[in-house]
Amino acid sequence: MAEKKDRKGGLGRGLSALMADMDSGQASNPVTADASASTGTSSPRQPDTTVPIERIEPNPDQPRRLFDGENLEELAASIAARGIIQPLIVRPHPKRPGAYQIVAGERRWRAAQMAKLHDVPVVIRQFDDTEMLEVAIIENIQRADLNPVDEAAGYRQLMDRFGHTQEQMAEALGKSRPHIANTLRLLSLPDTVQEWLAQGKLTAGHARALIPAENATDLARQVIAKNLSVRQTEALLRKPATTGKERVDKQRKDDKDADTKALEQDLTAAMGVKVTIDHTDGSERGKLSIHYNSLEKLDDICQLLSRGLGLS
C-alpha cells in the first residue's frame, strides 16, 4: 500500500511503516507467528541488531490489555526451541539513553522473558509518540486472535486520536465499513458485558444482539448460564418482560400441589369463571380469588353466591 503524504487523507505513515516492517512476518496463528519463517511460509525481515531484553520496555500506550496466558506459554516454548524468527519493532526510548520501547511485538517480548532469553532481535525505527501509537493500534487490529472489544477500542482510538473515518479505516485495513461500524457499537455495552466478551464467554454475535437491551447485563448472564445460541439470544430479547407480580404469581402456581390445582379446576368449572387458591405454607390460612372479565360475569357470581348463602 502506498504511503499517504497527507495524514488527513488516509492512515498515514503509521500504516505504511507497519506494512513494510510487519507484513512478511505475521502468520494468522498467533502462537506460530514467530516460527512461520522457519517453515518457509514467509520471509522474515532481517533484524538491525539484538538488544538485551532488560533494555526493552513495553509501549506505555499499548492498546492491547489482555494477553492469553496459555498462548503465551506455547509461544515461549516455540521461542525456546527456535528462537525469535520475526524481530520486534522498537524505537529509541525517549527518556532512557541506550534503552528502547516496543512499537510492535510485545507478545514476543513477554514470551521471550518466559523462555529466559537474554537478547532479542529488533528492527529500530525513529517513530514519534503519535506514529508509535498509530502503528501499535494497527498492528493489534491486524492480529487474528484479537478479541472484539480490543478491536473496537482500536478503531475508536484511530478515530479519536487521528481523525480517521470509518471509510478510511475500511479501505486501508481491508475491512468492510459495516464490520467496523458494528464492531464500534460493542463499546456501547455495559463494562461487565464487554469483559465477558473479551474473555470469550460471549461471541460478537451474542453481544451485537444485546446492544439494544436495557438490561443487557442480566440477559448476558442468562445467555452464558444457559449456553444460548445467537438465535436463542435474539428470541430472548423479543420475549416480553414479565412484571414482578406476574413472576410471583407464576412461581406460586408452579409451587401448588396437585390437590390444590384440582380444586381450582373444579371450582372454575362450577362457577364458569377462573378461580385461584393461594394457600399459605405451614398454616391453614389462604386466599380464594374469583376472577371476572365483565360486569355481567360479576353479576352472575354475586347471584350464585347469594343463592348459596340463602340471601336471594
Q: Please, how many helices?
A: 14
H/E element string?
A: HEEHEEHEHHHHHHHHHHEEH
**Uncertain residue ranges:** 1-42
Helices and strands: which structural class? alpha/beta
What integer is the average pLDDT? 76
C-alpha-based Rg, rounded: 32 Å
What's the CATH C level of the largest domain?
A: Alpha Beta
Order of the strands making up the biggest sheet: 1-5-3-4-2
Q: How far is the N terminus from the C terminus?
A: 96 Å
Overall 3D shape: elongated
Quote the CATH topology of the largest domain: Conserved hypothetical protein from pyrococcus furiosus pfu- 392566-001, ParB domain
Assign the CATH architecture of the largest domain. Alpha-Beta Complex
Largest sheet report = 5 strands, mixed
The count of β-strands is: 7
Q: Can you summarize this structure?
A:
With 312 residues, the chain is α/β, with parallel strands linked by helices. It has helices at residues 12-22, 69-82, 106-114, 129-141, 148-162, 166-173, 177-185, 191-198, 204-210, 216-226, 230-238, 244-255, 258-271, 295-309, and strands spanning 49-52, 56-57, 88-92, 100-104, 119-124, 275-279, 286-290. It folds into 3 domains: 7-181, Alpha-Beta Complex (Conserved hypothetical protein from pyrococcus furiosus pfu- 392566-001, ParB domain); 189-238, Arc Repressor Mutant, subunit A (Orthogonal Bundle); 251-309, no CATH class.
